[in-house]
Write a structure and sequence with these properties.
Layout lengths: L2 E2 L5 H10 L6 H10 L14 H10 E2 L7 E4 L5 E5 L6 E8 L2 E5 L3 E3 L8 H4 L2 E4 L2 H9 L9 E4 L9 H12 L11 E5 L3 H10 L3 E5 L5 H7 L2 H4 L2 H8 L10 E7 L7 H10 L6 E6 L13 H13 L3 E4 L22
Parallel strand pairs: 1-2, 6-9, 9-10, 10-11, 11-12, 12-13, 13-14
Antiparallel strand pairs: 3-4, 4-5, 5-6, 7-8
Helix pairs in contact: 1-2, 7-10, 11-12
The structure holds iron/sulfur cluster (SF4).
Iron/sulfur cluster binds next to α4.
Length: 338
């Protein structure tokens, strides 16, 4: 099997170039062709000699993976399905006025087992490799138009941190896509040791899936709570500065009868006190064999007002792509359609 060039850094590409008999500076050129011109094959790297390209192609390929299906929602949201040997993975492109945000997957399935999430129900089928994550940016129709990205698709990105870090480096490096870190948000349920690394090693925004401020109740739906409590997660976050360019938000899906009472709102205000942040209230999308349903709009509004009065900026997030199962918690690869 050939090795993939996509996902390599200029230093790594330099070694590969030299090994193929090309000059060392070809490494930098290859990075430009891969990440800026988004070539699909080694033959397209036309400023390398024909001989050099042939030598490279003996052991390497670009490694771009093409989507095998795309669905378009009534609201313009598009869901792309990418092939994987065990569980296909999905990327969702969300258009909003002049923004094009890509929600990417970092794993095939997920091992975190959150009970309200279709991806969690599929189990874990492997970490995605750099080329598999980068293909979600490069192989879609909107590749040249993307303005923002969120690591909020299938998988827990901090459970695949080394690869996700490499992808973030490629997105932000001058030799890569040269994006500002402000265009990138990583969403986590709070994998504490890697959360610290993310906060130390990147300048991108953070979103935390919180869903319940009471540890014992959160644990009922989110097994991660047993290993890393939400209290410790918030304590860690409070050690970092979110008063400038970098932002932190908390995702709070409202389930009728589980986490929608004034008692919950009050505890949330207490937990997030003295932290410059935003809470995004998300409407739950009903899934099979799950005891709770979505809250009414007026209940969500009451919850939002309660937070707001407690000094926390809170918004009810518009749900996108529901008709194509592209909304939060609904991504499940090809199994969902079955
Ligand atoms: Fe995994 Fe996120 Fe789903 Fe939890 S909500 S099971 S972390 S994909």
């Amino acid at each position: 099997m050939k090795m993939r060039l996509l996902g390599k850094t200029p230093d790594e590409l330099k070694e590969i170039a030299v090994e193929a008999g090309l000059p060392a500076f070809a490494g930098k050129q290859m990075a430009q062709w891969l990440y800026q011109k988004r070539v699909r094959s080694i033959e397209e790297i036309t400023n390398l000699s024909k001989q050099g390209r042939e030598a490279l192609a003996q052991r390497y390929e670009v490694g771009l993976i093409e989507p095998i299906d795309v669905q378009t929602s009534q609201d313009g949201t598009r869901k792309y399905l990418f092939p994987h040997q065990d569980l296909d993975f999905e990327a969702v492109m969300i258009p909003d006025e002049d923004r094009r945000t890509l929600c990417v997957s970092s794993q095939a399935g997920c091992k975190m087992g959150c009970k309200f999430c279709m991806t969690g129900r599929q189990g874990f089928h492997g970490n995605l490799e750099p080329a598999q994550i980068l293909s979600q940016y490069f192989a879609i129709e909107e590749a040249g138009e993307l303005t923002n990205t969120v690591f909020m698709g299938m998988g827990e990105p901090l459970d695949n941190w080394v690869t996700v870090k490499r992808v973030i480096d490629i997105l932000t490096a001058p030799w890569g896509l040269a994006w500002s870190p402000k265009r990138i948000t990583l969403s986590t349920i709070g994998v504490l040791p890697n959360l610290k690394r993310y906060l130390d090693e990147s300048r991108c925004h953070l979103a935390v899936s919180l869903h319940n401020p009471f540890p014992e109740e959160r644990e009922e739906m989110m097994p991660v709570q047993k290993a890393w409590s939400v209290t410790e997660v918030v304590r860690l976050i409070k050690q970092y500065d979110f008063t400038g360019q970098r932002r932190v938000s908390f995702e709070y899906t409202i389930f009728h009868g589980w986490n929608d009472t004034p008692r919950h709102a009050e505890e949330l205000v207490r937990l997030l006190r003295h932290l410059e942040c935003r809470v995004n209230l998300i409407r739950f999308h009903r899934i099979p064999d799950f005891p709770y349903g979505p809250a009414q709009q007026r209940e969500m509004e009451a919850f939002r007002v309660f937070l707001q009065e407690g000094g926390i900026t809170a918004t009810i997030r518009a749900s996108r792509g529901e008709d194509i199962f592209a909304a939060c918690g609904l991504l499940a690869g090809k199994h969902q359609e079955k």
